[in-house]
TrEMBL record:
Source species: Lentinula aciculospora
A GO term, aspect molecular function: O-methyltransferase activity
UniProt lineage: Eukaryota, Fungi, Dikarya, Basidiomycota, Agaricomycotina
Domain O-methyltransferase dimerisation span(s) in chain numbering: 90-161
Domain of life: Eukaryota
GO annotation, biological process: methylation
Protein name from the UniProt record: S-adenosyl-L-methionine-dependent methyltransferase
Pfam families per UniProt: Dimerisation, Methyltransf_2
Record-annotated O-methyltransferase C-terminal domain positions: 194-364
Length: 450
């Protein structure tokens, strides 16, 4: 590339222009314009499973290309200082979420003075004004007049009734607090915290913290936030990503550590020929039974679901199921604990059983990795690769995946994993890798027993 070659910039703008036209076309196909930021209505495409594939891809390209374009043309010092200040935004998001500022602005299109919001929330007026002004500058809230703020399309996701707000608060609270101690745990290890930043910050392990008086309400928030996280990342795409329709009637899926079973419930509603055994800790199973009685009583009445308490570290799940589905569990634990979970599952499997690990699978940022996959005759791994000059993993277009990996490190000393790391875990547990199915921001990794 010569010093006068700007093709990398024009290529990025070309990708953006093409993707924008794809977005316009998809909205036009349903007779709607693309919502502006000031629009308070949620719009037609709120969760990944509702989005046409072309729209999903266009959004990812726009996110990736716009960020790469900005980083390419802005002075590097500007970029790096901006990045170092990014922690201030979640700190502000926690303030407005905990104070329920979006709730106070509901049905107030003309806006409310920050001084009045502060009075109602019990906050300092000057400081809240500055918080809202920063967020409005990042397009969350609108400053309609000096010091007067209103909701917009983004701040509506911070309403207390929206489960996404619970996950935003968790990342802005527990996760941000832990990340402040990350460098300390790396450079000054201590047996007291076991290398876990969250433990150094609070004195407790992550899940134990939620049993303390100061952590109980945050634990309830975390449980809600996990559902919101699933909505954002498309966990319900499991119903579309795997060929369930080709499975015979009355196959049984054991949902290992399935919590309330909200993901498996969506799968069963989409594919009524499936039966489920939901397994988790006894107290979780008790709450799950109530949840299903309210949300899908038909499954209980027709005996399409069983609730069986167990501890996946101590017990094997129920024997002889056709599938063992493990969703969002393994990323909470280091390798040794994951091996124990998988070995217990392996004990319960019959020769024809399959394990489906539904979790985040980290991609490399090196294009040669993907070139090797393309050249391979192995059809078990077919992954989407971003067009050049984007990073092959879509860069900022998939940043939540890598942010989650960091949060898991800070909170739990756990991790999201690459496909080779999952394959290695499986092999150590008596499981053979079969295929990877892409499912939104997560993937389904299929195994059979050795």
């Amino acid at each position: 590339m010569s010093s006068f070659d700007n093709t990398h910039i024009t290529a990025l703008t070309g990708l953006i222009n093409k993707a924008v036209q794809d977005v316009i076309a998809e909205y036009g196909a349903i007779g709607q314009a693309i919502p502006s930021l000031d629009t308070l209505e949620p719009g037609p495409f709120q969760v990944p499973e509702e989005m046409p594939a072309r729209l999903t891809k266009a959004i990812q390209i726009i996110e990736a290309a716009c960020a790469q374009l900005c980083y390419s043309i802005a002075p590097p010092g500007h970029v790096m200082i901006n990045k170092s200040l990014e922690h201030e935004e979640p700190a502000c998001l926690l303030v407005v979420t905990e104070a329920r500022i979006p709730d106070l602005l509901l049905n107030k299109p003309e806006g409310v003075p920050a001084s009045e919001l502060a009075s109602r929330a019990g906050l300092d007026a000057s400081k809240l004004t500055r918080v809202l002004r920063l967020l409005a500058t990042k397009h969350c809230f609108t400053e309609v007049k000096p010091g007067v703020f209103a909701n917009n399309r983004l701040s509506m996701k911070l309403l207390s009734s929206d489960l996404v707000s619970s996950m935003v608060a968790m990342f802005a609270d527990e996760s941000l607090k832990a990340s402040a101690y990350f460098n300390d745990t790396l450079t000054d290890p201590s047996e007291m915290d076991g290398g876990i930043p969250f433990r150094r910050a609070t004195g407790y392990s992550f899940f134990d913290y939620y049993q303390t008086p100061q952590g109980l309400k945050k634990g309830e928030r975390f449980a809600k936030g996990m559902i919101g996280w699933g909505d954002v990342t498309g966990k319900s795409l499991v119903a579309k990503a795997y060929p369930w329709t080709s499975q015979p009637a009355d196959i049984t899926i054991c949902d290992v550590g399935g919590g309330h079973g909200n993901i498996i419930m969506g799968l069963m509603k989409a594919h009524p020929h499936i039966k489920t055994v939901l397994q988790d800790q006894p107290q979780v199973i008790e709450m799950a039974h109530k949840f299903w009685a309210e949300e899908h009583p038909e499954a209980i009445e027709k005996e399409r679901i069983k609730f069986v308490p167990f501890d996946f570290f101590k017990d094997a799940p129920i024997e002889g199921c056709d599938f063992y589905y493990i969703c969002g569990v393994l990323h909470d634990w280091p390798d040794a604990e994951c091996e124990l979970i998988l070995k217990n599952v392996r004990k319960a499997m019959k020769p024809s059983s399959r394990v489906i690990i539904h979790d985040t699978v980290i991609r490399d940022v090196v294009r040669s990795t993907y070139d090797h996959l393309k050249a391979s005759s192995d059809k078990s791994v077919q992954v989407d690769v971003a067009p050049e000059p984007l990073l092959p993993n879509y860069g900022v277009g998939c940043i939540r995946t890598y942010g989650l990996d960091m949060a898991l490190m800070h909170l739990l000393n756990a991790q999201a994993r690459t496909l080779p790391e999952y394959i290695e875990l499986g092999e150590k547990s008596g499981l053979r890798f079969e295929k990877l199915y892409e499912a939104g921001e997560t993937d389904l990794v299929e195994f059979t027993p050795f």
